[in-house]
Amino acid sequence: MNKIKHAAAALAASAALSLAAGVPLNNLQGTGGIAFNPLAYTAGQPWESGGTNSLNGIVSKPQVGAWYVNLNQKSINWYAAGFAFTVLERLELSAGYGYVNAHKYGALIDRDTRHINTYNVGAKLKILDENAFDTPFLPAIAVGGVYKYTDSPTVKALKLDNEGVDGYIVATKLITQTPWPILLSAGLLVSDEVVNGVIGHNHYGAAAFGNIDILPASNVAIGLEYKQGIDAGDGIRNHDYFDAHVAWFVTEKLTLVAAFAETGDPDKFYRDGSAKDLGVGSGLVLSAQYQF
Question: How far apart (Å, rounded) are the C-alpha atoms in residues 214 and 261?
């Protein structure tokens, strides 16, 4: 029995270490998180200690991530890349770029333009460490923001803004007392985004988001992600986002992710005067992440 307990403890510790090496990922906006949502963990692993030129504790190693979202329902391909690192083990700085190419157009996309570019710059401050004050139950807590810009040609036609700033607070906890380690994360987002900021920005609203991931093996995570749709005013309400994903921690540096995402129906945009449940369809999501 003691051997079984020791083996279970070793598995949990191993899984926790693998998870720590794999997340946060650079999400679709470049921020340390999963796909759509941020996590309270900051991006970047520490440098090896020692030596007069050691950066350990001052600035982390950088990490990068690339995403491909095939929204086959509406023939939309969404490519994204992100970069992030952390200063003084507290302040994460990130940048992201997105390229959205639509082959078949609904009312959302200007028919004379085949692509949209998005640019994001983010900052996240971890205000509470996980298990702070020697307590095993406290989550990590962070606050952050993302400046977002889009060159979407629909901005002027729909009287939207090209740019906006998101704000969020998020709590994240890795539970190792269960048979399989579980990562839980939840937060509140304040944003003026229209379709994740790809189409533009309007009025601010608040929404909840959350993630759950289970680690059935030390190098695999299986999870669900949810992001409530922002009510952007003037009858514009973003659809709730969902995704189911599998992450494979190939090495301590490389993580591969496959997912299926549902973001809503783009053809509803201003159809019959309604912009409820606004999104860009559903489809396959693939990602490669590398931590230096």
Answer: 18
Alpha carbons 238 and 194: distance in angstroms, whole number: 7
Which residues have C-beta within 8 Å of that of residue 39, sequence separation ≥ 6? 23, 24, 32, 33, 142, 170, 172, 185, 211
Provide the Cα torsion 99, 105, 110, 115; round to 10°: 20
Contact 283, 258 (CB under 8 A): no
| 252 or 14, greater pLDDT | 252
Contact 129, 136 (CB under 8 A): no
Q: Which CATH architecture has domain 2-291?
A: Beta Barrel (2.40)
Indicate the pTM of the whole model.
Answer: 0.86
Delimit the domains of the chain by residue range. Answer: 2-291
Say whether pLDDT at 106 is over 70: no
Whether the pLDDT of residue 8 is over 50: the answer is no
Q: Residue 92 — φ and ψ, nearest 5°? A: -90, 135
